[in-house]
Amino acid sequence: MSQMNKVIEMKGITKAFGNFKANDNINLDLNKGEIHALLGENGAGKSTLMNILSGLLEPTEGEIWVNGKKVQISSPGVANELGIGMVHQHFMLVDKFTVTENIVLGKEKHRFGFMERAVSEKEVKELSDQYGLRVDPRAKIQDISVGMQQRAEILKTLYRGADILIFDEPTGVLTPQEIDELMDIMQALVNEGKSIILITHKLDEIKKVADRCTVIRRGKSIDTVNVAETSQQELADMMVGRSVSFKVDKQPAQPKNPVLEIKGLTVKEKRGYDAVKAIDLEVRAGEVLGIAGVDGNGQSELIQAITGLTKVDSGTITLSGKNITNKKPRQITETGLGHIPEDRQRYGLVLQMKLEENMALQTYYQKPFSKHGFLNHNEIKQHAKKLIDEFDVRTPSEEHSAASLSGGNQQKAIIAREIFRNPDLLIAAQPTRGLDVGAIEYIHKRLIEQRDHGKGVLLMSYELDEVMNVSDRIAVMYDGNIIAVVDADKTNEKELGLLMAGVPLERAHAELAESSGKEKETVANQK
Amino acid sequence: MLTKNNDKLTNLMVPILSIILGFIFGAILMLAFGYNPLLAYQVMFDGVLRNPFFFGEALRQATVLTFTGLGFAIAFKAGFFNIGVAGQVLVGWISAVWFALAFPDLPRIVLVTLSLGVGMLVGAVWSAIAGYLRAYFGTNEVIVTIMLNYTALFVTNYLIRAVISDGGNTTDRVGPNASLSVGWLTSLTNGSRLNAGLFIALVVVALYYVFMTQTTAGFELRAVGLNSFASTYAGMSAPKNIILSMFISGALAGLGGAIHGLGTFGNIFTQSGLPYVGFNGIAVALLGLGNPIGIFFSAVLFGILDVGSGFLPNRAGVPDEMAEIVIAAIIFFVGANYLIRFLLDKMKTKKTVTEGGE
Question: Chain B contact for A344, CB < 8 A?
C-alpha cells in the first residue's frame, strides 16, 4: 500500500496523566476509503487516542501525520481544518433547534445579519441526498428519533467539510434496524471517498463493516488485523488479553416456587395510554426469565411498576408471597427485590457521591450503617471495601466519586450492591448495555450464580443474544402484551424475531416452516 | 489520596483568591476615580479590628449573615435556589418581636426561647410553601420565593402599621425579658449590640455540619439534591426531602430574623425594601462554598466590610458604596470560580512541566 493512500498516521502516541499512561506508544493508520475499527475494552484508551486526534488533548509524545504531512492538532478547530470530524456518542445537538439549524450552527449563511434559512435547508437536503442520510431538514431535534438525530450529527461533520469521520461507539443508543441503517450509511460514506474510524467494542459490527481493526488494551496497541482474515473470537481474546467465552456456562435450571407473580397488570404510560396491557407473568425461584422485545413495547414500564417507580393502574404484583402492588420502592426493596436499573447513571448511582456512599444507597438507614439516625461511616466504608474486593470493582479507593469509575465498574458496583442484599428476586434491566465482552461475561456469570443460589432473576434486554444465552424461559413483549413465553433451549433467533415483530406463536411456527423451505430454494437458485 | 488533598486545597484557594481579586478590583476602581485604595482598606479594617465596639458590631452582623448563609446553603444542597431568604428573615423577625411584645411578662429564658422558636417556625413554614409547591406541582421555587418575598414585605409593613403599632412605622421595643444581650459581651465590646445570637450561630454551625455529614436525614438530603432519580430508586422520598430542605432553610433564615429583631433592634419598623442580610446570605453561602465553617468565616468578612464601609466617607474621603463594589466583585469572582480553577490548573501544570524538565 503506497504512502499516499494513508490519510492518517499516528506514530508512537503516548499520553500520560501524571504517572498513568492512558496511551502508551500507540500506532494507528487509516487508509483512504476504509472503515478502520478501533477496538478495546472500556478504559483501554480509545477515547483518549481519539481526543488527541480531534484536538481535545495534546499527546505527551508521538507524531500525527495527516495526508502525508506532519501536523500539530492543537485544538478542535485545527482538526476541523484538517478535515477530521467526530460523531459523538452523546450527540452535541440543540434539542429545540431544527436539523438544519443544528447542522449550520456556527457557520450560518446570512445576509445583512439575517439567516438564510432556505439556502441552508437546501444545502442540507443536497448533502443528505448525496450520502443517503434520510432526515427532514426542518424537523426539530426533540421531535425525531435517536437514529435520525445521529444522522443529523453525521451531516454536521460533513457540512463542515470532514473527510475523516470518527464514530464514537455509534450504535449504543440505536435499535437493531437503526444499526443496520447506520452500517449502510457508513458504507455509502466510504464509497463517496470518506474514511472512517469506528470506535466500538461490538465485534459483530466490526465483522460487518470494518476493513481493518486495531486492538488496544490497557493503553497499548496490541495489533492491527484485516477483519476478513480474523474471527470474532480472536478479536475478543486480543481485546481482553485472555480467552473469552461467549457461551454462558450453565446447568439446566431447577425452578421451584414462584417468587414473582403478576396478574392482569396494566400500567399507564406518562401520556396516559396503556403501556402494559393486563399481562400475567411468573418468575420462579431458581430460574432466569428473560424479557425480549423491541425497545418501547412496555418492558421499561413493566419493570418500573414492579419496582414501585411507576403507579400500577390495575392488577396485582406479588413478591415472595406478599402483595407489593403500588407499594413504595423502599417497601418493595425490603420485601426482597434487587434492581439493576436500565439507566445506571441516572437511576443506579448518585455520581457525585463517594462510591462507599453509593454502596449504602438503599441501606444507609438500617443497622449497622446507622443508629438512631446517625450514620456509622466506618461500617459504610468497611461494607464498601468488602464489595469492591468481592466483586472486583476497579477503583483507586472507596472514597472516589462514582463518576470517576468506568462504565463497566459502575455497573459492577451496582450489581455488587444489589446482589449483596441477597434479594429473592433480582431484576436486571439492560445489565450489559455499553459494556465490553469481559464485563459482559462477568455479569452473566453473576446472574446465573444468583439463579443457582435459588433466587429468581428477571432479565430484560434488547439484545437478543443476551436474552437467549442467559435465560431459561423467555417472555416476548409486543405492544404492551406478553405475546408468548418460550423455553430458551427450544427456540431460536428467527422465532423470537417474528414474535418480537408481533407475529403470534402459531403463525410464527407456520411461517418459519414455510420460509425454511423457501430459503433452501433460494440457495439452490443462487447456485 | 494525593488528588483528594489537592482538591481540598483548590476548594480553599477559590474563595481566598476570589477575595483577593475582589479587593484588587476594588482598588483599581478607586484608583480610576482618584481615591487612595490603600488608605481606604486601611481605614476599613483598622476601624473595625482596632475598635472593640465596631468589631462587636461586625460580629453581630456576621451572626445574622451566618443564619441566612446556612439557610441558603441547605436548600442549595438539596438542589434549590432559595432566593426567598430575605422574606423568611422578615417574617421571622416580625413574628419574634410580636410574640415578645405580646407576652412581655414571661420569665426571660422562656420568653427568649419561645420568641426565637416562633420566628424560626414562621420562617420555616413560609419557606416550606415554596417547597410544597415545588414538590407536588413542580412550580419553580425561584419565582415562588421571589413572590413570597414581596408578600412578606408588604404583609409585614401592614401588620406593623395596622396591628402591632397604633398606625406608626415602628413597634414598641421588646421588654428586658426578651433581650438577647449578654452583659459581659456588651461591656467587652464597649456597648455594641453584639448578643447571645453569636453563640446560637456557632452552635447552629456545628449542628449543621453534624446534620449534613453524620445523619441519615442529611445523607438523604444530599442524595436527593444530587440525583433525585437515583434517590427515588433507592427508596428515598424526593417530595419529602424537597419540603424538608426548604423547611430547614426557612427555619434558619427565620431564626436569623428573630435574632436580628430581638438582638440588633429590639423592635421592627416598616421597611422600604427587603432586608439585605437576606440577599447577602446568598453571597456568604456561595463564598463559603456551602461548608458551614466556611460560611461562618465569610459571614465575618462580610460583617467587617459592612461595618467598615461606614468609615470610608469621613476618614478616607471615599464613598461607602465602594465597599459594596468590593463585595460585589468578590461575589463575581466566586461565581466565576471556573476562571480561578482554570488559573490554578494552569499554574499547576506549569509547575509539573518545570519539575519534569529538571
Answer: no
